[in-house]
Design brief:
The chain is of the alpha/beta class. It folds into 2 domains: 3-124, Response regulator (Rossmann fold); 127-226, Winged helix-like DNA-binding domain superfamily/Winged helix DNA-binding domain (Arc Repressor Mutant, subunit A), CATH 1.10.10.10. It has 10 helices and 5 strands. It has a 5-stranded parallel sheet, sandwiched between helices. Helix 2 packs parallel to helix 3 and helix 8 crosses helix 9.
Length: 226
Amino acid sequence: MTIRVLIADDQALIRTGLRGILESAPDIDVVGEATTGREAVEQARSTRADVVLMDIRMPEVDGLEATRLITADDDLAGLRVLILTTFELDEYVLRALRAGASGFLGKGATPTELLDAIRTVARGDALLSPKATQALIARFLTAAEPGPHTDATTLAALTDRDREILAPVALGLSNDDIAERLYLSPSTAKTHVNRAMTKLGVRDRAQLVVIAYQTGLVRPGDVASP
């Protein structure tokens, strides 16, 4: 299946470089380029992209607001936003995830990492590596102003099994890793993850990660058990 990608960045040189990398992959098709957040929203609707590579700092409407507008649009429910940041722990990353982004990638990533990240968010699988996930969430949830807190009662709709699976999701583990640790099949692990997303009303694993930390189910510094 070909992944349709929209590039949103206000710097022509970066857009050209990204296009060159993406067009080298047989399973990825660049369907448009946007230079502002407003254009990104408009083209997300017109091109029917699967993934938007979204820069944060853009004119008119920034990447955060553009992400919020895209993920709030029911007609774009299947579209994923991958945030591109100058620094891996950019101060806006968690806000982007709260806005509905499916993940983030530093602009210093290799071409292979970029292509893999696009494929990852396109299939709605793992958000980030465990190390990157923990570093990101720990950094921002322990900040002076981490943003709105989510009450633990939010998890009331989940079964004990759902919660047992949500914790390793928040630590960045893939369905295969979760299945191995909990003695399940990967398809069963995926079913529980999808069920948790439905019950909590979120789009993807990125939002599950945020909720798990904000409700205290998982805390900064926690690690996946061996």
